[in-house]
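dumping the sequnces here before i forget
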Amino acid sequence: MLDVIAPLVIQNTTKIVLVSLDGLGGLPRLETGRSELETAHLPNLSQLATEAACGLIRHVAPGITPGSGPGHLGLFGYDPLHYQVGRGVLEALGIEFDLRAGDVAARGNFCTIDGAGRITDRRAGRLATEINLRLTERLRKIRLPGVEAFVETVKEYRFVLVLRARARGGAHLAAGLSETDPQATGQPPLPVKALNPRAKATAALVNRFVTEARRLLADAGPANMVLLRGFDQLPKLPRFPEVFGLRSAAIAAYPMYRGLAKLVGMEVLKTGATFDDELATLREHWDTHDFFFVHYKDTDKAGEDGDFDAKVRALERLDRAIPEIRALKPDVLIVSGDHATPSVLAGHGWQPVPVVIWSRYCGADGVTAFTERACGAGSLGVIPSQHLMPLVMANALRLTKFGA
Amino acid sequence: MLDVIAPLVIQNTTKIVLVSLDGLGGLPRLETGRSELETAHLPNLSQLATEAACGLIRHVAPGITPGSGPGHLGLFGYDPLHYQVGRGVLEALGIEFDLRAGDVAARGNFCTIDGAGRITDRRAGRLATEINLRLTERLRKIRLPGVEAFVETVKEYRFVLVLRARARGGAHLAAGLSETDPQATGQPPLPVKALNPRAKATAALVNRFVTEARRLLADAGPANMVLLRGFDQLPKLPRFPEVFGLRSAAIAAYPMYRGLAKLVGMEVLKTGATFDDELATLREHWDTHDFFFVHYKDTDKAGEDGDFDAKVRALERLDRAIPEIRALKPDVLIVSGDHATPSVLAGHGWQPVPVVIWSRYCGADGVTAFTERACGAGSLGVIPSQHLMPLVMANALRLTKFGA
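..and the predicted 3d for all of it:
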């Protein structure tokens, strides 16, 4: 679709705001039969839904539960099945590591092995982040020929390994590598194998890293080994600002979402830790950009905690911010999310997520509430997430006719 | 999609029941403006729809009327446009012939030709099944080099021809063959041509069979010739139990549907001739399988007969069985069908078919009736049939996240 859209793009001065409520969609609670959205008091979102075109967004495919990567790529207009991003790259983005083209990134676990080298705990008792910091310090001593090896703490037992070819005489790195994590205890970690001839040198380097790591961690405790998986390089994605002809800004308090926006070439604006900070950043940059991706994390956090009431409150807080955003008079205002995080699942869900698109030209439908059920009967129907951006562009009058 | 789903599959102990009402969907009767589903009294299906996610399933593509083969492959998660099964194979499955890998099957008609060899009746007056049995007996005398030729009565003027290479010194069989049936009277049957070089030997064998058949039937009456079409071999399908990680059982009183389930690798459970027998089989095997495909034929039969009232009664009979199925406490219960058979068409139709998916996590929508019109406004939207199984797997919590 991007190839169809790009040649149709025209320039104007319209302003677009996409507010993404992370983990937006939910499910009815058994006791009441009402979802988080149906329970919350959301006068401003209801008003917006009443004036706007409503529908449901499906991010990957029916029944598929999206991770944050595919969830956001879809919102940004990319088919998440076509543009896949490996776990290692997502972890690196999640800590805002400055990943560069050609780098190979992997997700690492600190783990424990017994005297015979068999895994006894894949997460080393979910060790504390302070211990992780101490262990990564040890691993940073590892030297490999022709590459720099970065070892970065993520959280608890998780870290990121990044290999970067040295500028002079550097190794040629490739990401087609098998994983060392057998995803089971009682087995030894697997050696990394090259999945194609180009990745042979990289496989040898990673195996050398693992051997060194085992030696350096032998007496470290509480972990004495590492597991590596999800080897990948930065994907080659069409750049969002060029495809859509939009001076594009991302406003997100959490690093993962800044990383995903950067991945598609958006400018990541400096902001603070709260949603109020994000709104201040939005106001501040209103004149310098055409498109604003504004990320709201609280809904997902409450859903992941399985805390229905907290998610209701997070929705109500967001609702109170809607008038501030509308006061800026965007030409197109979209409210949706990157995936469902139903409190009753205490995790991401596969359910499609409500969306409202408001503009002078959106056409109203019969929907008067911003809920899963109400939006399911909206005029947008149930659409793949990558169809959202073309609709947004159309509402911004930024697409010309297809065919004469 | 199967390639996307398979790596996401995880194991648990949830139970899934898919009830397929053959020829489920209908059309309004002129006199009342109400379809069969809208006319029938279906308290249990209405209750299920109220509690469940509803939608419409489209089996092949808009406007395409599915046969039983594509209809069921779609329900089982296979894109019916990608996985095509030839008529010969379907006819063999329909009589539960033990078709094996490499066999070439064709659909046969007994027909009549005049003195000049031109077809006068493509169905030989739709001769009776007893006569068919007598004629196939004659054809079984035909001997071909290197292959066994099976000639099996289907019904009336229809039979199946299966060629099977002998274990020792057998011919190499291939299915790329043109048809002998010109689909018109006044023309002679066509010789079979190989559509690719690998099928040359098979074409020669089939032409020899036809020559012999003409000789053996010359004085038989009321048919004196055969027409052959739909040559095919068993398709190589991904196996359903492995793709979805489900111990899968099919419960169907009719051979065609047992054959289709076997084609994708399901275990076909022995059952009786009625739907009550099927329910008894379901109860009996509840503990030994994860997934049950339960087939209900009466709706299609009534629709094919153009008998609106009989179809209404068939729906009401099925409705009364729903509590028995729910009493087993499946984790996921799906009710849908393999295609529409509107009574006003007295045959299969292209209309999408209602579907309900019930689980603890399905999310309710506003739909309170199991009808074409009501389900059209459901939260599932109008989905291709092959998207049903991923949704079912998600509702069974048997799929992990896609992307981190």
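Residues 90-232 of chain A form one domain.
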